[in-house]
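This section describes the prediction task in plain terms. A model, or a person checking by hand, is given the sequence of a single protein chain and must write out its three-dimensional structure as a string of tokens. No templates, partner chains or ligands are provided. The sample shown here is typical of the held-out split.
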Amino acid sequence: MDLDYVLHTYARDYTHFVKGNGARLFDESGRDYMDFGSGIAVCSVGYGNERLAKAISEQAYNLIHTSNLYGIEPQARLAKRLVELSGYDMRVFFANSGAEANEGALKIARKFGEQLGGIKRYQIITLDSSFHGRTISTLKATAQSKMHDYFGPYPDGFVYAKDLAEIPSKISDVTCAVLLELVQGEGGITPFKREEMLYLEKFLKAKNILLMIDEVQTGIYRSGELFASQKYGINPDVITTAKGLGGGVPIGAVMTTLKDIFVPGEHGSTFGGNFLSTRAGLEVLEILEEERSSGRLERTITYFKDKLQDLQKSYPEIFIEEVGLGLMRGLRMRDVESLEKFIKKAKENRVLILKSGKNTARFLPPLTITLEEMEEGFKRLEEVIGDLG
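The expected answer:
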């Protein structure tokens, strides 16, 4: 039925999952799969989380949605928690996805450039191998030529740099912002160096150019802190986030130090920040802040990283290096053929992992994954290593 009625936008594997628990998914035959991808970093508190399910259920019985024409109490509370937990002096706009959050960031940058006076500043610099979304503007912000086929003409004003070091040479008198990921989710899971980011931040602030950090994937404790920006010690002008914030309920957010950049009518969203999504976000933040403050999250990160490094050291002929930050990690492989074989064999042995870039296996487990679940998942992975030679 899917093939008859749903647009073919995904190269789907037609395993039919019917329920989940913790880091496990179960198919219609009752077989369990260890999910080391967590719905592409979305199911941050795992599957079947009782606290999240209860919060969503209670909210659904009261109000799912009104509109943003009226006050939404959990929306205000969620914005307050994001600001408090981040330590950044910002205001928040809620959308439904990472792409919409990034669209909001682009509009903030363009209006900022318009308000500076003199020549209009509109150019935004992004990085090669980046990924910022699938709307027309965020596709153009994504510096991957393969993503640009068929859908032009695109809006002007995007300039691409090959790395952080090249950004200063790309700046012109019409540059208003730089948008980048601290760890490129689609570009090989390689974190940028802290000292390079600190230098870039200082350089941009001296030029009065916005530093905008796309934390759609790195945000919401995936790095070990609420935002990877905190780990880097930087103070962005704009942060975008989404994926893990709702634990599976669609939500995105753009946060900015430019607190009065928009006036009513200049930006908006029908569904964004409604009662259901923001109540889910509040519960997710509470669960994950407990994981962080108790030390459990850091122990989980260390254990998962160590297990990946053990794999790389044990099989250097298969895995070139282990990379990543927090629970956003990768194993670099020889080539794309090896990667595809690894992902396929892992799935056959009931472990779900993802691809990043040309030759990197991407691991994004639930942040609440247990020691037992990690042990079982890595045991299953080791069982398929012999088939990769």
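For orientation: The mean pLDDT is 96.
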